[in-house]
Amino acid sequence: MALLDTFERIVRTAHNFTEAESRGDSTVHPFEERNIHPDFPVDVRNLFDNGHYSQATFEALKYLDEEVQRVSADTDFGKSLMMRVFGGTPPKLALNPGMTSSEQSEQEGYKFIFAGTMQGIRNPRGHTTKISDDPDTCLDHLSLTSMLLRKLEEAGLR
Fold first, then answer.
1. Which is more confident, 157 or 3?
2. What is the rounded CA–CA span in Å between residue 157 and residue 104?
3. What is the C-alpha to C-alpha distance for residues 42 and 60, in angstroms, rounded to an integer?
4. How far apart are CA 105 and CA 40, in angstroms?
5. Dmax of the chain from CA atoms?
6. Distance between CA atoms of 158 and 152, rounded to whole angstroms?
7. Distance of alpha carbon 95 from its chain centroid, rounded?
8. Which terminal residue of the chain has fewer beta carbons within 10 Å of its beta carbon, N or C?
9. Do the beta carbons of residue 134 and residue 53 sit within 8 Å?
């Protein structure tokens, strides 16, 4: 199985050598192209660069989970943490003033985005090694996680 993993990593990174000319500036890392949040642990980028895309996603989402725990002072985790701290009246972590129905809808929507991200993306990668993401899927996950971190920052929670 290790030989297959090595082969897969080589195949997934081969485009770095074959398509460099067609990209223009080959010194731009995909994280910069996608504006991936710079606060992710260094392991996230290292895992991505070494072809461990599912693990990079998992580590980024663990970081988001820990950030929400930290700013909310709540020890729960995952979906239940997100539902509790972004829900309720008033929510423990308010993303906006919550004065209008639009702001209340936004708060509720983000509660489900945070919770769904944990349940639908993070959890499967934490329970099996059989998930094998490609680089674009990983970058999509990291972009979503970056957006959620930035939403916390916009709300003054980080």
1. 157
2. 17
3. 10
4. 29
5. 57
6. 6
7. 18
8. N
9. yes
